[in-house]
Amino acid sequence: MQLKLDGLDAHLRQAKAKGLAPLYVVHGDEHLLVLEAVDRLRQTAREAGFSERDVLVAERNFHWSQLVEAQQSMSLFGDRKIVELRIPSGKPGKEGGEALRAVAAQPSPDVVMLVTLPRLDFATSKSAWFQALEGAGVSIKVDSVDRIRLPAWVGERLALQQQRVEGGEPGRRALQFIADKVEGNLLAAHQEIQKLGLLYPPGELTFDQVHDAVLNVARYDVFKLSEAMLGSDVPRLVRMLEGLRGEGEATVLVLWALTEEIRVLSKVRQGIAAGKPAAVLMRELRVWGARERLVPQAAQRLTQGKLDAALAMAARLDRQVKGLHDLPPPGSAPLPAEPWDGLQQLALMIAR
Questions:
Q1: CATH number of 147-213
Q2: Mean pLDDT estimate for the chain
Q3: Cα–Cα distance for residue pair 240/225, rounded to 1 Å
Q4: How confident is the model at residue 78 (pLDDT cuts 50, 70, 90)?
Q5: Residue 213 to residue 205: CA distance in whole angstroms
Q6: For residue 55, what pLDDT is reported?
């Protein structure tokens, strides 16, 4: 059974009357939301009498027989128990896959199993072991909070602690300010929202109160650059590049991330021109998440000539960041002396 995260509370209310499923799989990359979902499942299980807890982490050298033993062995005190299995890599391997299929095939009425996984790619979501888990219990997919929806998400979290921003433009600015300051970091956003709850009483928050309380806790992620570039969000793109530069990120890594995205755009552009559906191209190129929507849009608005020019500039920047002499084609302008300025020019070629 598949369940969306926003349907979990309703499912748990129903489970209090009818009983929990024997197995739950929570998967996604948004660590805060995964933790919260597992906490709610764990609390409901405890209220239902599952008082003991075994925690297993499937890392290197993990013995999968421990999982089968944990499910089949009775508690020393005869209590029902929760078995938590965490698979950080999302790849249990052949032995692990067989063990997961075995526990899915023989659920125990005295055990609730909670399996946590990172975001799954298409092939993993169709694997025999994952299909077995999903068929035996409940699968909960935890999607990332889209950057556009982040201010609204912050507002919803404030409401949970009986706080709200002032109405109109000042309130929208306050929510946007928090979203900008916690760029890509929901755990940090959660901490800042909790801090507002400690500093101020329930009720309305002004922009000045939010501004004075919220720290700059942005996590500038080089792999998030593509979302800003593909979505033509120039202010965010420039802000992230400046943040990465200030944090001392390696220029070669930033260049690699931008270049790989441009190569994907070029392949998509060529595929669309050849008549291939965008959905097929996304699967072939392993484009998931927010990029699955942004890449086809960007490929449609960019010409092949623009993409070829961007790749040529990336090749010149590659020589520059490695300390080699630039070899500009005839009639081309020289690169900026500072590589970070060149990286910004490259990103803006695609964003604009």
A1: 1.10.8.60
A2: 89
A3: 7
A4: low
A5: 11
A6: 92
